[in-house]
Protein: L-rhamnose isomerase
Organism: Aeromicrobium fastidiosum
Amino acid sequence: MEEVTVTRFDDIAVRLEAQAIEVPSWAYGNSGTRFKVFGSAGTPRTVEEKIADAATVHRFTGLSPLVSLHIPWDLVDDFAALRRYAEDLGIGLGTINSNTFQDDDYKLGALTHTDRRIRQKAIDHHLACIDVMDQTGSRDLKIWLAEGTNYPGQGDMRGRQDRLAESLATIYERLGDDQRLVLEYKFFEPAFYHTDVPDWGTSYVQVAALGDKAFVCLDTGHHAPGTNIEFIVAQLLRLGKLGSFDFNSRFYADDDLIVGSADPFQLFRIMYEVVRGGALDPDSDVAFMLDQCHNIEDKIPGQIRSVLNVQEMTARALLVDTEALAAAQESGDVLGANAVFMDAFYTDVRPDLATWREERGLPGDPVRAYADSGHQKQIEADRVGGTQASWN
Ligand code: PSV
Ligand code: MN
């Protein structure tokens, strides 16, 4: 009888060793919708407190060694000192996010604006972000542009692409040898008729024209409902142009909910293509980031839940029996191939992951350990007064 080989947790555990999920500083501040931003006890008042919260997530999970900053929300006088502060807490400073969406000058565009002065102002902001990166040691500059138009005829869509290309080229020029630019796309919002970087194809075209240090950033919440996101992952990895993920989940639009909460199967399918495309290999340069808001739930446990969701779906994706899958695919066994795939998805890895964590000196159940630690009550008692951090 032919021996059946089954991929087991022990066989894949080593692949989880180096997994790192970058957390966003803004997840620890207050956020909301255009209707209301709710305050919550214990919310950081300063960049340092946001970094401390990110370090707490890493302490409980071992999964988030970097925190990503947003400029100007996280502007400080001395970024070298901020870097030392973070490192003392056991965490590094990661991706720097630019912001050209909160200034009146940018109402009709920033890097695409028809007015040279406003374009230059937006370019200068990005150059200042690169100055920050020089001090924080960050590798990636992440650019998300809120640019587009609301009404047909309002703008010259073609001219805006040309100006975007020119502005990006000026920013790209300033990158150091070890620095990269990642261009994020989003199909709509805040512009409702056309968006200047609406899809992966436009981002790809723009970054391909820049050179080897420019990549696409894929935010999972930035697609039309029903989009096959894992196909985009596969394609960008195939092209060597997937720079980073912004993980979150959505039911309707850009909901920024906890990754893996709305559609765990979609996260599994994405992580399968990540593994398939080599993005989990030790030499991979793909950055795995969260881009989330915790509008009503506590923020630190929300982030702990998020990184654990990514880890769980990564483990399940690694459990796909690739040999059996390839055999079924090649022999045209439609249902057999699907069954191999689904077997891995339906495998509950939580008990094995709990043991795996305990073997590494981490709590088996980080969510419960955080709840039992009293840390939330402590920050709620300590952080009284001041202005809670938000989108400012
Ligand atoms: C835009 O919706 C976005 O996803 C971009 O990544 C921003 O950097 C982030 O949200 C926070 O504004
Ligand atoms: Mn994003």
Summary: Strands lie at 23-24, 66-70, 92-97, 140-144, 148-149, 180-184, 194-195, 214-219, 242-247, 287-290. The first strand starts at residue 23 and ends at 24. The pocket of alpha-D-psicofuranose (ligand 1) is lined by residues 26, 97, 144, 184, 186, 219, 246, 254, 291 (CB under 6 Å).
